[in-house]
Design brief:
four-stranded mixed beta sheet; about 35% helix; 10 helices; binds adenosine-5'-triphosphate; Rossmann fold; alpha/beta; about 20% strand; binds magnesium ion
C-alpha cells in the first residue's frame, strides 16, 4: 500500500476506484458539474457541488463520469449515520507487528493525491461528522486530524462532490455546511429516449423490445410521481431476461412477474 510521511507521521493512503460507469443522456448536467469545479484564476477556488435527486437517478454515476472526464483518479467515501469525524480523516490501525499505524481515509487520500472525492449519500452523516469538514469546504481547504495532530492541506487539483438523496434525509445537514456545498444540481428522472439509452448502456445484451416495455412502464411511474428509478428499471429488465433464459417464455408474459417481484403488486397498474 502507498504511504506518505507528513511531519514525521506515516499515513497509509487508500487507492482510487475503477467503476464500469458511463454517463448517458443529459450532457448539460455534466457540463454544470465540471464548470463548478473549474478554477479561473490563481486566486480562485473550486466549488464543492452537491448532487440532489431521488434514489437511483444516477447521482453517483454523474459524479464518477465527471471526474473521469477531467482525467482524475476517483475516490469514494460512503457516508452513513455511523460515520465518525476520524473515519473521514485518519484512523489508527494495528499493524502486522502490533504497532499503531495511521490510515488516511479515501477523502484524505484524494486530498493528498489531487484526486476527486465522491462523498456519497452525505445526507446520512451527522452534524459532528460534517463539522470536521468545515475548513476543507471553504477557502482554507484543509482538515485537522485529531488523532495524529496533523493539519492536512488539499492538493490544488483536489475536487469534491457530495451526493444526497432527497427522499431519505437521515439528518438535517446544518446550515453552515449547506452554504459550503454549492451549487446544488438537481437530477430529475430522464425522458423516455434518454431512459432507453441508459438501459441499453447498462444492459447491452438485452433486446430492444423488453427495454421498450420497461421504459414505458418507468415513464408512467414517473408521471404518477412514483419513486421508481432507473435502477429499478435495470433490475426489472435483468430479472425478466434471466427468466426468459430459464423458461423460454415471452417478455410480455414475464414482465409482470419481474415488476411484481422487484417493486411489488401495486406497481403492476403501470404495465399496459
Ligand atoms: N444517466 C445515466 N447514465 C448511465 N447510467 C445511469 C444513468 N442514470 C442512472 N444510471 C444507472 O442506474 C443505476 C443507478 O445509478 P446511480 O447509482 O448513479 O444512482 P444514485 O442516484 O447514485 O442512486 P442512490 O441514490 O441509490 O445512491 C446505475 O446502474 C447506473 O449505471
Ligand atoms: Mg448513489
Amino acid at each position: 500500500m502507498d504511504s506518505i510521511i507528513l511531519n514525521g507521521i506515516k499515513l497509509a493512503l487508500a487507492g482510487p476506484i475503477e467503476l464500469p460507469l458511463r454517463w448517458v443522456g443529459d450532457d448539460e448536467l455534466l457540463r454544470q458539474l465540471l464548470a463548478a469545479w473549474m478554477v479561473i484564476d490563481e486566486r480562485d477556488i473550486p466549488f464543492n457541488p452537491r448532487l440532489i435527486g431521488k434514489p437511483g437517478v444516477g447521482k453517483t454515476t454523474l459524479g464518477y463520469a465527471a471526474a473521469k472526464r477531467l482525467g482524475r483518479e476517483v475516490y469514494l467515501f460512503q457516508a452513513t449515520m455511523d460515520t465518525r469525524p476520524e473515519d473521514l480523516i485518519v484512523t489508527p490501525v494495528i499493524g502486522p507487528d502490533g504497532s499503531i499505524q495511521y490510515a488516511a481515509s479515501s477523502l484524505v487520500s484524494a486530498m493528498i493525491r489531487g484526486g476527486v472525492l465522491i462523498l456519497d449519500e452525505g445526507n446520512r452523516m451527522s452534524e459532528k461528522a460534517w463539522a470536521s469538514l468545515a475548513p476543507l469546504l471553504d477557502d482554507r481547504r484543509y482538515v485537522e486530524s485529531v488523532i495524529t495532530g496533523l493539519r492536512i492541506h488539499a492538493h490544488r487539483e483536489f475536487r469534491i462532490v457530495v451526493t444526497m438523496n432527497e427522499d431519505s434525509s437521515t439528518f438535517e445537514v446544518p446550515e453552515y455546511i449547506h452554504s459550503r456545498l454549492q451549487p446544488q444540481l438537481y437530477i430529475d428522472f430522464p425522458e423516455a429516449g434518454e431512459e432507453l439509452a441508459i438501459l441499453k448502456e447498462n444492459l447491452p445484451f438485452a433486446g430492444s423490445a423488453i427495454l421498450g416495455y420497461v421504459v414505458d412502464f418507468l415513464q408512467k411511474g414517473h408521471a404518477a410521481d412514483e419513486p421508481y428509478s432507473v435502477r429499478d428499471g435495470i433490475n426489472i429488465a435483468r430479472y425478466a431476461l434471466k427468466m426468459m433464459a430459464a423458461t423460454q417464455k415471452e417478455p410480455r408474459e414475464l414482465l409482470p412477474l419481474a415488476v411484481q417481484r422487484i417493486l411489488g403488486e401495486d406497481a403492476l397498474r403501470y404495465l399496459k
